[in-house]
Design a protein that fits this description.
The protein is an all-alpha fold. It contains 21 helices and no strands.
Length: about 475
Amino acid sequence: MKEWMTQSLESLNGFLWGPGMLVFYIGAGLLLTLRTRFFQVRHFGAAVKSVFEGMLSERPADRSGGVSAFQAVATALAGTMGVGNIAGAAAAIAMGGAGAIFWMWVSAFLGMMTKFAEAVLAVRFRDERGSQKRGGPMYYISRGLRTEWLAVMYAVFCLLACFGVGCMTPAGEVAGAMGELGVPIPIVSGVISCVCAVVIFGGIKRIGKLSERIIPILSLLYILFSLVAILIKATAVPNAVGSIFRDAFDFGSVGGGVLGFGISRAMRFGLARGVYTNEAGMGSSAIAHAASGETEPVKQGMLGIFEVFLDTFAVTTLTALVILTAFDGDHGSLALIESGATAAERAFSASFGSFGKIFVAVSMFCFALPSMFGWAYYGEESLRYIIKDERRQKGWCMVFRVLFSAAAAVGALADMSALWSIADVFNGLMAIPNLTALLFLSGVVVGEVKKYEKTRPRIKRERV
């Protein structure tokens, strides 16, 4: 039974992340990049500035019941930062070689625009009739494309994904990391489940406040320790960087296609893990962006650009370099390690000794929990969209919160290879309707960009 399930998951992943899906994903990001004239490059400075302004601002979140723009991006970052950055980088290298990192960069550069478009459309088409702003792919698919069945399909995929991608997978990796320190997995399972229940029953405002406090500090500390670990292994850095580019275009083993087997595996796992870590193309983070009090779609979209940059180009790249310098070309032994978190622990231990294991385990725990909180919110919003009757929503949301907390406990005890395969399946299923919407609504995104760039000089004058 287990072998049949494994083969079925692999077959489905082969379809969902085959050449067609890779072209679909890259094509959507490339189209948006070209149509907006490389907006992510031209306005990158403004995107970074807007994030720091949000961090330093002491303005209230939003009188109409939403959250601040920075709380929205912190919640979105909470959903992306964590397992994908630490364990995902190791898993990508183990399965696709060092070249997978190059394709993670490609997915991130183009993903900046897919996530930008998702945030723009989330604000543009959100529902503001109630006390809380609601939005995301299901809303811009329904209101923008006027295709309700596709919107419901996305909501169903997102609801199912929150249990696999956003709950069981991070819980399993945290349990593996803590297990390396000798902490009994059943205890880890119970703690994660209880903490999830306490936080997610508080709703989006509690999640947003927690995320805006935790994520910046965690990110800064992780980047700092990663840089130190890389400096300790500085002599191995040139070979590590070189292997990323060499393996990315490895035609050594021709596997019956136009691309060699090596490059196709690097592309598949690089793009799949890239999507897992920054969520660009999946549309999930758009649900958090829609809850923002920001009224200008493009300004909120800029925060999406920064999300991808911090998540992949900064944190994930540093993790990859720590791993590559520690294993120094020995990817074979890396592939034998079942857990990505375990591989990361051993890599950091090569620089910091026993402290490396503790650092990775604590980082995984602290990153994974906010990630799970963010995904709990995505799942609940998807459930609310599926169940239109507001009187029934409250009861079903309570059931969802209980099930989500229970799934966290189960994930800590589950097989990691199966969880990663399930995560990839749901990533692909969510991406299909979302990318379809981005392609057909790209004109709306371009229109919002043009409107923003026309009014920008006037905004500058008014500030002066």
